[in-house]
Design goal:
The protein has 587 residues and is an alpha+beta fold. It contains 18 helices and 17 strands. InterPro entries: Aa-tRNA-synt_II, aa-tRNA-synth_II, aa-tRNA-synth_II/BPL/LPL, Asn-tRNA-ligase.
């Protein structure tokens, strides 16, 4: 006896409306794969912005095109018809009208006749034939867009006013099998329009197709509606979650460090000074009455100059909001140390600021970083943690952003997925600064712009050669000369180098920098003296060495640079939502 064949069971994916907006995300409709067939017939509410639109008019069937009947083709000849006296008189009215005009008599003298002579008003034009509107809408949850079909015979829509690109729509309808022969297999047949947000097509920046990224930078408030920037934003969000996940999984506590600080954490960067003083030129008249805190960019590359950082406090500074010179933070690691020396392993995630007037495509004034501090650890521990974190982030993006990475591979960098997979699976090269210099000195087939000698920082050109050309993999360079690293980095036994490292990634450059902090009070004091730093200003930092000092190390991961790496782009301004650069901070 043959077993009866059973039809494959159709899985119906859940279409749960969002809790706070009572609509279904398009991602749940468009990215459920073969299970889309189970959605046919479901009534949903969706919303989004129009990516493209088209109107198709349905021509009415003309009655003249119908085949005539025999009676219509050959009508019988009409017989004679008797006319009444009234009909005879009415038929002669045009003749009487001409006689009146000949004699120059105004028709106003005969209102009855005027009324008879006035033309009969034309009937109103027939309503336009019904149309179908085909809209591709996207709500930012997916690479794909949903086809929305509006039949004006069912849902009234002003004829000739197709919802143009950029308009917003919220509609209720039924999901059906797509009637088109495109890539999509599902569409929404609208039953009710709940909201329409109009747009001005003449001024809408995205009316033109495929604006280049450098043009989109002029519209940071509008560019998230493009497919590319929306994809970058979703990758950025996933990377954000991945970073927190890694550190939570390894027992780290998240600590928020201040954005406004009174110390110079590095001594090598130009800083933004925070002040409420009118001395900095807030204008005249009504502008002079401004009471909001303002930020003034002040050049502080000469951070070691006593005339700038000296122990004295200028009179005008005493009257300022904080009573002393304050800056936007360049690094939060010093503050993070105080919590590491009490809670163990901690990390921070936030913006850091540099007032460098640089044209670098990998630097803007405000950049987000992940900073880590590990108690009871040394340089080797931080290097291992940094490498593990980097590999974890690469894997997380590939596992959780398949559609976006597919788009990035197609549109931006065809090799990006392969590179990330490669960097996940290999071990990273570790070399000392001295070894790096020796390798670069032996290069004969390339001339570097900056002359290389021991004791100077390695330039981006040097680092690129090591990672891209020599090793062809990420490289961790450690034990730098003490003159090129901050004062708080632990001095090595040779007295010339410090326990610091940089992780250099092919096609990107330095993504992670780290170090072991100086836990010895005498050594720290000596280093501060070398940098001409105020003892009073760093008294709290020295206290950590006086009261229960411990070896500790950490690192700083450039979050924006990681997004740049994951997307295959080259300019950090394209992955920062609202980039701030020298001379440009419009919104």
């Amino acid at each position: 006896m043959m077993e009866s064949q059973q039809e494959p069971k159709v899985t119906i994916p859940p279409l749960i409306p969002l809790e706070y907006s009572n609509r279904v995300m398009l991602k749940t409709i468009l990215e459920c794969g073969d299970d889309q067939i189970g959605l046919f017939g479901k009534t949903v509410v969706v919303g989004g912005w129009v990516k493209s639109s088209k109107e198709v008019k349905r021509e009415p069937v003309a009655a003249a095109l119908k085949p005539p009947t025999a009676a219509e083709a050959f009508p019988p000849s009409p017989g004679p018809k008797e006319l009444s006296c009234v009909e005879v008189v009415q038929s002669r009215i045009p003749f009487f009208k001409k006689i009146i005009r000949v004699f120059g008599v105004s028709s106003d003298s005969y209102p009855g006749v005027r009324e008879k002579f006035e033309p009969v008003p034309k009937p109103p034009p027939p309503p336009p034939p019904p149309s179908k509107f085909f809209l591709q809408i996207n709500d930012g949850s997916s690479i794909s867009s949903l086809m929305v079909v509006i039949d004006s015979a069912i849902v009234p829509v002003s004829a000739g006013h197709v919802l143009p690109t950029g308009a917003c729509i919220l509609a209720q309808g039924v999901l059906e099998k797509s009637s088109s022969h495109g890539k999509q297999t599902i569409e929404l047949k609208v039953e009710k329009i709940l909201h329409i947000g109009t747009v001005e097509p003449d001024t809408y920046p995205l009316s033109r197709k495929r604006l280049p990224l450098d043009s989109l930078r002029d519209y940071p408030h509008i560019r998230p509606r493009t497919t590319t920037v929306a994809s970058i934003t979703r990758i950025r969000d996933t990377l954000d979650f991945a970073a927190h996940t890694f550190f939570h999984n390894h027992g780290f506590l998240h600590v928020q460090v201040p954005i406004i600080t009174t110390i110079d954490s590095e001594g090598f960067s130009e800083k933004f000074q925070v002040t409420t003083s009118k001395k900095w030129g807030l204008g005249s008249g009504s502008d002079a009455d401004v009471r909001h805190e303002t930020v003034k960019a002040e050049q502080h590359i000469e951070a070691r100059d006593k005339s700038k950082l000296g122990t004295g406090v200028k009179p005008e500074v005493k009257e300022d909001f904080f009573g002393r010179q304050s800056y936007l933070s360049v690094s939060g690691r010093l503050h993070l140390e105080s919590y590491a020396c009490a809670l163990g392993n901690v990390y921070s995630f936030g913006p850091r600021f540099r007032a460098e007037k640089t044209g670098s495509i990998k630097q803007v004034a405000e950049m987000w970083v992940v900073e880590v501090e590990i108690a009871f650890s040394q340089l080797e521990d931080s290097m291992k943690c940094a490498e593990d974190c980097f590999k974890f982030l690469c894997k997380w993006i590939l596992d959780h952003c398949p559609q976006d990475m597919k788009f990035v591979t197609k549109r931006i960098d065809k090799t990006i997925v392969h590179r990330l997979e490669y960097m996940m699976s290999i071990s990273y090269e570790r070399i000392s600064y001295r070894e790096a210099v020796d390798i670069l000195r032996k290069v004969t087939d390339k001339t570097f712009e900056t002359k290389l000698r021991w004791g100077v920082p390695l330039t981006a050109e040097h680092l690129s050669y090591l990672a891209d050309d020599h090793y062809k993999r990420p490289v961790i360079i450690y034990d730098y000369p003490k003159a090129v690293k901050p004062f708080y980095v632990r001095l090595n036994d040779d007295g010339k180098t410090v326990a610091a490292f940089d992780m250099v990634v092919p096609k990107m450059g330095t993504v992670i920098t780290g170090s072991q902090s100086e836990e010895r009070l005498d050594m720290l004091s000596a280093r501060m003296k070398e940098f001409d730093l105020s003892r009073d200003q760093y008294e709290w930092y020295q206290d950590l060495r006086k009261h229960g000092t411990v070896k500790h190390s950490g690192f700083r991961l450039g979050f924006d640079l990681m997004v740049l790496l994951m997307t295959g782009l080259t300019d950090v301004r394209d992955v920062v939502p609202f980039p701030r650069t020298h001379g440009k901070a419009n919104n």
